[in-house]
Amino acid sequence: MADLSAFPITERWTPEDPSKLQLFSFPTPNGIKVAIMLEETGLPYEAHRVTLSDDDVKSDAFLSLSPNNKIPAIIDPDGPDGTPVGLFESGAILLYLGEKTGRFLGESPSDRAHVTQWLMWQMGGLGPMLGQLGFFVKFAGSKIEDPRPRQRYVDEAKRLLSVADGALDGRDWIAGPYSVADMAIAPWLNALDFYGAREIVGWHDFLNLQPYLDRFFAREAVQRGKNIPPREG
């Protein structure tokens, strides 16, 4: 059985079976990316619920694995060098799992370059910008009277949605065959509904986006992964 004692996080979130990959997460857009990838690949894993409260994400235990105090993070007891490996950052984890399983990264080096391109687009643009939009529409930023901060993110969200809509014109998935790029992008597009921001960004003007989400959420692995780990524990 794998020895995960070198990872202090396991003292608080204790594995039942240390031989399985350990996921420390919460069902946000960034969190469910990795759960969906694990469900799509069929890798055996255990999911540990790490809430977004400071008691969890800023605890010494969690910071020992994820020093950026953000979910998700993983420990793979079967690392590539024959020893356990711990990782944080959802995009890095998706690439790692794609390499580990040989799946969802594209069939050729050229395919992989395009998948990675769109994954980085989500990590550097779509996710951060929609997250800021959510702050100004649904959360504390909505109380700010100056309209300029919110408008900045409304405009940038519209621009990014236009980029995705154009890329999906005439195709089912963002980078060719279904890939980690879709697992990263679709949950963030769906977050606009949670934020109550679809109307202000003109969601229905982007004709390819809703069919794309419908295809994505019709996948059985996505249906399972979107609720892992459960919000209530």
Structure description:
This protein is an alpha+beta fold and 233 residues long. The chain has two domains: 9-103, Glutaredoxin (3-Layer(aba) Sandwich); 109-221, Glutathione S-transferase Yfyf (Class Pi), Chain A, domain 2, CATH 1.20.1050.10. It is 50% helix and 8% strand. The chain contains ten helices and four strands; from the N terminus they run αβαβααββαααααα. Helix 2 links the parallel strand 1 and strand 2. Helix 2 (29-41) runs parallel beside helix 5 (90-101). The chain is globular and about 55 Å long. The mean pLDDT is 97. Residues 108-233 form the GST C-terminal domain.
Secondary-structure class: alpha+beta
Provide the helix percentage: 40-55%
Write down the domain tally.
2
Estimate what percentage of residues fall within beta strands: 5-15%
**What would CATH call the architecture of the largest domain?**
Up-down Bundle
List how many beta strands DSSP finds. Answer: 4
> Biggest sheet: strands, sense, closure?
4 strands, mixed
In the sheet with the most strands, the strands line up as 2-1-3-4
List the uncertain runs. Answer: none
* Gross geometry: globular
Distance N to C terminus: 27 Å
**Top CATH class of the largest domain:** Mainly Alpha
Summed up, the helix count is 10
If you compute it from the alpha carbons, what radius of gyration comes out, rounded to the nearest whole angstrom? 18 Å
Looking at CATH, which topology of the largest domain would you report?
Glutathione S-transferase Yfyf (Class Pi), Chain A, domain 2
The helix-strand sequence is HEHEHHEEHHHHHH
* Rounded mean pLDDT score: 97
